[in-house]
Amino acid sequence: MPTWTLTAHELPLRFVWKISRNASAAKTNLLVRMAGQGHHGTGEAAPNVRYGETPELLARQFEDLQAAGLNGVASLEELDPLLAAQPVAHALSFALEAALVQWLAAQAGQPVWQWLGVPPPATAVPTAFTLPIMEPGAVAAFVQEQQAARFELLKIKVNQDGGLELLREVARVLPGHPLLVDGNEAWTNADAVLAFLEQAAALPGLNMRYLEQPLPAALADDYRYLRPRSVVPLLADESVTDTADFADIARQFHGVNMKLMKAGGFRRGIELLRRTRAHGLVPMMGCMVETSVAIAAALQISALADVHDLDGILIIKDEPFGLVSESGGRLSLRG
């Protein structure tokens, strides 16, 4: 019988990670390990406060799963009914499935991407790099310290109050550099977003390629109004977790940022990316603050996305596992 274990890892960050709804200097992620028959698999859970996930909650849910028979699970056909009977947070669901899939792929002598039936990842996958919310005066030093110019696409976290001034300074420091602006649901109505976009368009040197989730996910009517009026493509993030009405999403957005931690597993993440493309939307892969355990997992299915924002390992101070390397703004699997 395989054995399943869960361990918590405190992860100090290289800088304060501030988005529109919170800020943190460290994260606590959990690793699920499955071992048996000479093989093992590891999955990572990065709890997302936006969906009420905490390390403590996930640890309790894991204990409940063990009491319900997790240590007897050795296939997806056994995992699925267990999770249906004992639902858990999406992040924990992904960690469980990732560990199991890695173990099954190892038994089959295949890389994970092949076992899952998806195209192989590129040798080096370009990733965006994120600038958290900061005072405009701190931008130049941050860009220099992090050597941010090496990334083909920069993601800029903004809020409604200071977003414009932050973008003004980024455009001054890196004129013309492609930017993905991420509002994390900071605005309250579509007209306010349109006013922001109009003001941003007048900033010298600003090259905004995408605007990600500026409004709360609940404001679907505002998104339907905003989509045909936005001068830049809109990307869904919080509006798509593990379920989505893609016909409606296509009326609200131009693309979808799929995160495996929100999808709850490889299989659901693959389905979301394929449905995104099938509806004529831009398929993107994102991440939380994650170690190379989760980023390596994301890279296994990265060929299904056109845009990649997988810089979670670059936010962590002294990333502990070293499964992914970065050079010139591109990520590669090690080993």
Question: Tags for this entry?
Answer:
single chain, 335 residues, three-stranded antiparallel sheet, 13 helices
Structural features, described:
The chain is of the alpha/beta class. 36% of the residues lie in helices and 24% in strands. It has 13 helices and 14 strands. It has helices spanning 55-67, 76-85, 90-108, 112-116, 139-145, 163-173, 190-201, 220-226, 246-252, 260-263, 266-278, 292-300, 312-315, and strands spanning 3-18, 23-36, 39-45, 125-126, 129-131, 154-157, 178-182, 207-212, 234-236, 255-259, 282-286, 307-308, 324-327, 330-333. The strands form three sheets. The protein has an eight-stranded parallel sheet with strand order 5-6-7-8-9-10-11-12. Helix 8 links the parallel strand 8 and strand 9 (234-236). Helix 7 packs parallel to helix 8. The longest helix is centred in the N-terminal third of the chain and has 19 residues, at 90-108. The protein is globular, with a radius of gyration of 20 Å. It starts with a strand and ends with a strand.
Q: Are there runs of 5+ residues with pLDDT below 50, and where?
A: none
Oligomer: single chain
Q: Order of helices and strands, N to C?
A: EEEHHHHEEHEHEHEHEHEHHEHEHEE
**How many extended strands?**
14
Our Rg estimate from Cα atoms comes to: 20 Å
The largest sheet is: 8 strands, parallel
**Which class do the helix and strand fractions yield?**
alpha/beta
